[in-house]
Amino acid sequence: MPMQANDIEDLIRASFPDARITITDLAGDGNHYAAEVIDASFKGMNRVQQQRAVYAALKGKMDGSQGELHALALTTKAPE
């Protein structure tokens, strides 16, 4: 079953409550999303570390072929 954009945001927000989060459904199918997450906790982290932190917040929803979320194009950064 495809995930809804608000479900993805809720999972990310649980780990990053003060983040600016934008979720976009890229294909209109509930399976291909883009997410931009801007959070102060990313300061001093490289992009890989930032993205791993966000993927961890998704709590396995992208794991393997059984994951509820098929594709997520992720952009992360600390606020300027």
Strand order of the largest sheet: 1-2-3
Write down the Rg.
12 Å
Low-confidence stretches: none
Which bin fits the share of residues in helices?
25-40%
Query: Which oligomeric form is depicted?
Result: single chain
Beta-strand content bin: 25-35%
Shape: globular
Write the layout of secondary structure elements.
Blueprint: H1 5-15, E1 20-25, E2 32-38, H2 47-57, E3 71-77
Structure, explained:
There is one protein chain. Strand 2 (32-38), helix 2 (47-57) and strand 3 (71-77) form a beta-alpha-beta unit. The longest helix has 11 residues, at 5-15. This protein has 80 residues and is α+β, with helices and mostly antiparallel strands. It has a three-stranded mixed sheet with strand order 1-2-3. The chain has helices at residues 5-15, 47-57, and strands at 20-25, 32-38, 71-77. The radius of gyration is 12 Å and the shape is globular. 28% of the residues lie in helices and 25% in strands. The model has no long low-confidence stretch (mean pLDDT 91). It contains two helices and three strands.
